[in-house]
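Long-time lurker. I teach an intro course on protein structure, and each term I like to show students one example going from raw sequence to a predicted 3D structure in token notation. This year I'd like something fresh instead of my usual example. Would anyone be willing to generate the tokens for the chain below so I can use it in lecture? Attribution to the forum is fine with me.
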Amino acid sequence: MGEPDVTTKWVEPRRAATRRLYVDGIGELALSLDRAQGELKLAVEGAPFALLLERDEKKGIHVELAFPVSADATASGFEVKEIAGDHVLSTVHTGPYRGGDEGENLIDTVRGLWGFISERRLLAGDNPSRYIFLEGEATHGDDSARYRTEVQISYHTPVWFDALDRGLRRHAGTKHAQAIMKDAALLLGSFDSDAIRRFVLEAVRRTGDVVSDEGERARILQDCAHRYPHAQLDRLRAAYDEIGDLRAFIARLAEDDALFPAKIWLDEKGQTPLVYIERSVPPWNREAYEATDDPVEKRYHACFCVMVRDAIRTGEAVPPEFCDCSAGWYVQMWSAILDRRLRIDVVESVLRGDDRCLFAVHVPQELL
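-- Reply from a regular --
Happy to contribute to a lecture. Here you go:
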């Protein structure tokens, strides 16, 4: 297989009749859609699609099957709801879902798209990947070589740009936002990670010039963060509700890597209680991290931010506030758990030259 033909686009929200289930592999999606559609007593208004929600070692792949329907539709045995829109990286697979020669199956195209993303150092998002079944057995019968399936992987860079633009408009005004973000749209279709990195670093530096308040700058960058998966937030909130005590909950997080895979502890020695979160386990490339003794390479392989981590190797200066974007991940986490936004400071960061990333969560005393 050659390099896939990849585009980026915005997928509009769709009203759909949905059903969740587990499948053993991506090749089973079309069969599952056909079975479900046979039970659906509604006209489908567009190509059916599937969203990959998460993987379970025992159950398989948790998916949501979706059939576009009219706005006022109802369907017994299905949940009718709006599927949110998303910025995506897209390619079209032409060929069988499975069972074809090596390189011809749907999973091969999926791997090719992920390889494209990795090689170009693009910033994939956290929303579920989507598979839109454009043409299949109903269109081409047994001629699976003509089946067409669009593969969409969430793309976070447009989301990041949009969030930065909104934050600048809110805290610095439209004129400054337009001046800083004027070239952003041109970068998205180029897939040029070096140009994106240079733009992002300069945009953050210029944000510091027009937004003088440190807390406001932090909030702007925090709102650019990746979106914490809803299923994981639901598990965290359920655990907190079950325990009912914040100290005991933090102790649970410290012991349960499946629930929270990072080092965490509570420090009550100062005037304000702080929850420290340390990301010392390499989140990006563990094998390469452990194979090198070079401190620069270690920091590069430890940093998860594909948008700017090359700055570690190039020696480009990274504005200190950039890592407030990473703090935004934990802003979402604690907001979901406690129903309020907490202040979170970046104490250490590999992008700043430290050997780890360390965050301090300010916890109001009344919550303890």
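Some talking points for your students: DSSP finds 14 helices and twelve strands in the chain. Residues 253 and 261 are 8 Å apart (CA to CA).
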